[in-house]
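Table 4 source record.
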Amino acid sequence: MVFKHNRRQHILAIAVAFFAAVPAICLPIGVRAGMSPGTRVAKAYANVFGEDEEDDDVTIEDWALVGSDDEMEDSETGEKDSDKDDKEESSKDYEDIPKYYVYQSYDSLNHPNELLAPEFFTPDNTQFYSKVAAALKTKPAMNAPTVTTIHKGQPVIRTGLGDTWSKVRTENGKEGFILTSNIQDTMVKVNAKFIVWVDTGSLTVRKEASSDASKVTTAYKHARLAVTQVVGDKWYKVTTANGKSGYVPKSYTTRKAPPTPTPTPTPRPTRKPTAKPAAKKTSKPSYGNVKKLPKITGKNGSSIVAIAQSMLGVKYKFAGCSRSGIDCSGLVKYCYAQIGIRVPHGATQIWKHSGVTVPRSALKPGDVVCYSKGSICPHVAIYVGGGQIIHASDSKGKVCYANMDIMKIKGFKRLIR
């Protein structure tokens, strides 16, 4: 019995030693042969049990899906476990931070209230144009006092941008606030259909609404233009009589049709009685020789009338001689200067030293009517025909039409053939 007991122990000890020694012996051999232990065991298994003849396709269970970063993925959502963890962690990071919501409020007229104080407006210096006629406010609120009214298309400079309001400055320096939705950064264009006439000697029609744009054609004094569009508050898009289209400044046009001068009929000459010596004793004014007057090609008395008509409405200013202000002799001097003829500034000086005297019966458009007050000539005007004159009226404060016989006439002067 003792032998048997020791025998069992010996067999068990040998088996344990064998299974412990085999891997230790094979491991360095596999490494020396350039094969991994796993590969060596797999080959040994194949030699004993043969190759596995099952299909090479392997079904990978959902739980075993691994992403490119060796992280487990959810088979249904495709999300990585690490992504889920990051989301959970990030959501936890902001749980203690208070949340605030900003709500836009509106006034009683449903206009948005500005959320920013004006001192926090974003600085700006951009040209904008008013899309509608709007009130410029002292504060960014509709119930604030009005600084001025901005008309549709008027240019403004935006100096500050708030949440719903903008701070702007007009061309004449007035500043205030306007709804941002009421302005845009391009010129406002409004389709139109009316007629204007050129109100200057010559006017360049341009390709775009800009003084730097290329020239399309030239329109001259009193040329008729058909307006098809109003651009901003300074330009018209027009079509000329010959069909050319372009843009012209509004300030050089007028919607008032130019008057058509009515020529004065020349009375039939009558025979002068020769049998009455008393007629020879009557003093008669001496008339000058009009043939000695300067002659300018393409210019005549009608040219002077056209220039005078372009000055209608200019305010009266004593000693003035420009479109910003003008007096009676200044008007004559200005008109004749446009065609290159020098005239003194002063009614009496014009009467004494300019042109030649002509009779009333020979009066033509462009002649100068000189009035009388004692020995001086206090007032002059430009004859336009039909018994009418254009003059700078002190009493009316502007250049206007009038009847030729508004006061006693001293005589008539012609300055050009």
